[in-house]
TrEMBL record:
Keyword Disulfide bond in record: yes
Region forming the signal peptide: 1-25
GO molecular function terms noted in the UniProt entry: endopeptidase inhibitor activity
Name this protein carries in UniProt: Kunitz trypsin inhibitor
Keywords noted in UniProt: Disulfide bond, Signal
Matches recorded under Pfam families: Kunitz_legume (PF00197)
Superkingdom, taxonomy of origin: Eukaryota
Record-linked InterPro entries: Kunitz_inhibitor_STI-like_sf, Prot_inh_Kunz-lg
Similarity annotation: Belongs to the protease inhibitor I3 (leguminous Kunitz-type inhibitor) family.
Length: 215
């Protein structure tokens, strides 16, 4: 009986020392060092303090804020964003297929009812761009996150088309030459590096407003 117990304890110790640290290391961490919760709401912040967070804004001839952009106001944290996976998991890890959308308090006053889930739309002058709303040119695919720094909780966002033989592309920034708007696009250049700050519902009610204005 004792030998059975000792063997069970040995297996438990081997499991906890060899498996758990690597599993925890794969979690996507917020600015506080906590793993991202599946379905949690976060500010997506730039790792460069000269720019603000991620929000929606109208670009080109859009009458509604359909483009996902990076705020040029360093004090603007952007809009609360829900990051979720269809996998039955509690926490988000690197490589998990993700859907991303602006949270329930991101109300578009003049364009109520527009879906706020992110998608990548092709056929635009700036290239494949991250948009919200329904669009017939949206690419079937998903987002995922990858750590880029062992020292800091910095990540890059990628978009992966569902088509066979398609490679995931980094999400970067395309700067509008006319007004300086910083659009999120699939880019082969320098990726946008981001961090995540968790929100609670009280913060969302107080801070998530003005979605229809461009920063």
């Amino acid at each position: 009986m004792k030998s059975t117990i000792f063997f069970a304890l040995f297996l438990f110790c081997a499991f906890t020392t060899s498996y758990l640290p690597s599993a925890i290391g794969d979690f996507v961490l917020d600015v506080e060092g906590n793993p991202l919760e599946n379905g949690g709401t976060y500010y997506i912040l730039s790792d460069i303090t000269a720019f603000g967070g991620i929000r929606a804004a109208p670009t080109g001839n859009e009458r509604c804020p359909l483009s996902v952009v990076q705020s040029r106001n360093a004090l603007d944290k952007g809009i609360g964003t829900i990051i979720s996976s269809r996998l039955r998991i509690r926490f988000i890890a690197e490589g998990h297929p993700l859907s991303i959308k602006f949270g329930p308090f991101a109300v578009i006053l003049l364009c109520a009812g527009i879906p706020t889930e992110w998608s990548v739309v092709e056929g635009l002058p700036e290239g494949p761009a991250v948009k919200i709303g329904e669009n017939k040119d949206a690419v079937d695919g998903y987002f995922k996150l990858k750590r880029v720094s062992e020292e800091f909780n910095n990540y890059k966002l990628l978009f992966c088309p569902q088509a066979e033989d398609s490679e995931c592309g980094d999400i970067g920034i395309s700067i509008d030459q006319d007004d300086g708007t910083r659009r999120l696009v699939v880019s082969k250049n320098k990726p946008l590096l981001v961090q995540f700050q968790k929100l609670d519902e009280d913060s969302l009610v107080k801070k998530n407003h003005g979605l229809s204005r461009s920063e």
